[in-house]
Design a protein that fits this description.
Low-confidence stretches: 5-14
CATH superfamily of the largest domain: tricorn interacting facor f3 domain
Helix content: 10-25%
Bound molecules: zinc ion
Strand order of the largest sheet: 5-4-8-2-1-11-14-13
CATH architecture of the largest domain: Sandwich
Largest sheet: 8 strands, mixed
CATH topology of the largest domain: Immunoglobulin-like
Number of strands: 29
């Protein structure tokens, strides 16, 4: 998701939260979810902009992990309604409990077997009040008055508009998406277009196929009067199909602005490794909201201009060198779509790395100084209101600081590694070793500690689970420099680079005073500005 949500998240999330049974049903791996493993979805729907409704079915195929289970949880949020569920062509009972629907299967399921149900549903899905930051469907019209429909539902959940296992830990291995769009309009979803079926009334069904695991919120619905053009990118894994869908009257603008896709792929394949979905191609699709990282189908609404709606969030000028939505949302193909959080409380895995990808894009094309200035500039929007990690098992994300503060934490790590080739190999290693997986923060933290070669637990605890910014306190006594970390968790330690009288020096401060012998009295000490810390001379007056 695009930064900007911090403004609403910051205040909303800072309020004390009380969680309900519905939050638990939505946010935890309930027993009715745990026994089965998703293998395939076929979402098959008709979308009607005339009355803002969606109707159709989702076929859910699953592998049985635990024996003798018969009750299955499927999620669909009112006002959408499940009308019937069938298994092997016969109706099975379904019982609604708020957003959760419990399906009673025909017989106890045998471990190791595959099963399938078909869920029929319809209704007028929630309309998004502030896309993409509030979930729902956007029913817009383009400048010619033609219907223009799009979904955005990270956090609130895909079950706002289609029935699914709406928890991020489990993804189908592949998915088919069939969308019937009114006459004269096209649907663009994820993966490759496998066929278009024409109906007597002039409407058409677009059949898309996703050959890779896909997360729920990444499933895309875009209906509009689209133009289409195609290009090819010769990347690390061969030829990658690029398909572009601007509104018909924006074709010329798109061809110019969206050329940045090539620069994006060049920079990100360098830093993160091959684009993770070659089989599904890469698409940009114009939508009536700012943008979202829908897998292999990135949605775009940045107005064909550089920056974030024409602005530079870093205040350094570097943010105007690229189109924020192309770079940020496509960065999520590696961190969100390839490596996906199991619980939205760990959303930093998506947003911190992707926010940092903006800096790495600059690094690749404009050099490390530009990249450093950009990530440092983003500190002006850090709030330090609540921790970055949210509440587990209740679908609750943490502070919007997961964007700029999370990327500044990663920038700290880059300084600690102090070897950009090694840093790059770690970023590529993450994408290789967690390829197409859903993960926990513990997995990512352990991986970074292991590959950086130091226990970084205190660093993660400080920046992800606490709101205080470490302060390097120091005092000079003759030719002795004393220093320590303050304003931190008890066990905090982190190396930091300083200059003493212009000479670079690494310190290994902890929360207790340490000493460094100096060559001369009254040294001038400066902390390397790439570290997101503060410093204070605490010498007694
Ligand atoms: Zn994002």
């Amino acid at each position: 998701m695009a930064l900007g949500s911090i403004l609403c998240l910051g205040t909303a999330a800072a309020q004390a939260q009380e969680f309900t049974r519905q939050d638990t049903l939505r946010g935890s791996i309930t027993p009715e979810r745990a026994w089965w493993d998703l293998s395939f979805y076929h979402l098959d729907i008709a979308v009607n902009p005339q009355d803002s409704s969606i109707s159709g079915s989702n076929t859910i195929r699953y592998k049985v992990l635990e024996p003798n289970q018969q009750r299955m949880q499927v999620d669909l949020q009112p006002p959408m309604r499940i009308s019937r569920v069938t298994q092997q062509g016969k109706d099975v009972p379904v019982q609604q409990d708020g957003n959760a629907w419990f399906v009673q299967l025909r017989e106890p399921q045998q471990a190791g077997t595959e099963g399938e149900i078909k869920v029929y549903y319809s209704g007028k899905p929630q309309v998004s009040e502030n896309p993409p930051w509030s979930g729902g469907i956007t029913w817009a019209r383009d400048a010619n008055g033609k219907p223009w429909v799009a979904n955005s539902n990270q956090g609130d959940g895909a079950s706002l508009w289609w029935p699914c296992k709406d928890h991020m830990y489990d993804e189908p291995d592949s998915m088919r998406i069939s969308v019937r769009a009114p006459k004269g309009l096209m649907d663009v979803s994820n993966g490759q277009l496998k066929g278009v079926q024409e109906h007597a009334d002039g409407s058409k069904t677009y059949h898309w196929y996703v050959a890779n695991p896909i997360n729920n919120y990444g499933v895309n619905l875009s209906i509009g009067d689209y133009a289409h053009y195609a290009e090819t990118y010769k990347g690390e894994k061969g030829e990658l199909a690029l398909n572009f869908f601007p509104l018909r009257y924006n074709l010329d603008k798109a061809k110019k602005q969206w050329a940045q896709t090539h620069q994006m792929l060049e920079a990100f394949e360098h830093w993160f490794g091959p684009y993770p979905f070659y089989e599904d191609g890469f698409k940009l699709i114009e939508v009536p909201y700012l943008g979202m990282e829908h897998q292999s189908a990135v949605t775009y609404g940045n107005g064909y201009q550089n920056g974030y709606r024409g602005r530079d969030l870093s205040g350094t000028g570097w943010g105007l060198k690229f189109d924020f939505i192309i770079i940020h949302e496509a960065g999520h193909e590696w961190f969100a779509n390839n490596i996906t959080y199991k619980d939205v409380a760990d959303m930093w895995i998506h947003e911190s790395f992707t926010n940092y990808s903006e800096s790495l894009f600059l690094d690749y094309h404009y050099g490390t100084q530009a990249a450093n200035e950009y990530v440092i500039g983003l500190r002006n929007i850090i709030q330090n209101d609540i921790p970055i990690i949210g509440v587990y098992n209740v679908n609750q994300e943490g502070s919007g600081d997961m964007y700029p503060k999370g990327s500044n934490m990663l920038h700290n790590l880059r300084q600690i590694v102090n070897n950009d080739e090694k840093w790059r190999s770690i970023l590529r290693g993450l994408n290789k070793d967690f390829y197409h997986q859903t993960v926990t923060t513990q997995q990512i933290e352990s991986y970074l500690s292991q590959h950086i070669g130091r226990d970084l637990t205190p660093v993660f605890d400080q920046y992800l689970r606490d709101v205080r910014i470490p302060r390097l306190e120091y005092r000079v006594n003759g030719k002795t420099l004393q220093y320590r970390w303050a304003n931190t968790v008890d066990t905090f330690n982190m190396p930091v680079k300083v200059t003493v009288n212009g000479e670079a020096q690494w310190l290994e401060p902890t929360t207790t005073w340490q000493e460094l012998k100096l060559k001369k009295k009254k040294p001038k000490l400066e902390v390397d500005p790439n570290f997101y810390v503060t410093a204070q001379n605490v010498a007694a007056a």
